[in-house]
Amino acid sequence: MNSLSEAAEKIVKEFEEYLVADGKAAKTLESYVGDIRAFLQWLESKDNTFAGVLKRFHITAYRNYLVQNNYEINTINKKINSLQSHITERQERCSRTSLRM
């Protein structure tokens, strides 16, 4: 479960670039990228491919997985916040793309 598909690696790299451009601290960057990578690994382990659109079902299922695996609530919240940051990044990217058209 350690490796990601090429598409998922691209998503992680784009997210990391966004965080750097946004001026996030190194530790924040490491944490957020690690959380997104772990989420994508979990998703791919369920035979799902993340196409860039995060649905409520994904978040709920991942949160349930974390709870069932005895993660602390603060850790779960941090991981979900990282996903929220990723959603923001994707929305900003879509907005920039549509403005160029």
Automatic annotation (TrEMBL):
Cell division keyword on record: no
Core-binding (CB) domain ranges (all copies): 6-91
A biological process from GO: DNA integration
Taxonomic superkingdom: Bacteria
PROSITE patterns, alphabetized: CB
Keywords: DNA-binding
GO molecular function, one term: DNA binding
Family: Belongs to the 'phage' integrase family.
Name of this chain's protein: Phage integrase family protein, putative
Classification of source organism: Bacteria, Bacillati, Bacillota, Clostridia, Eubacteriales
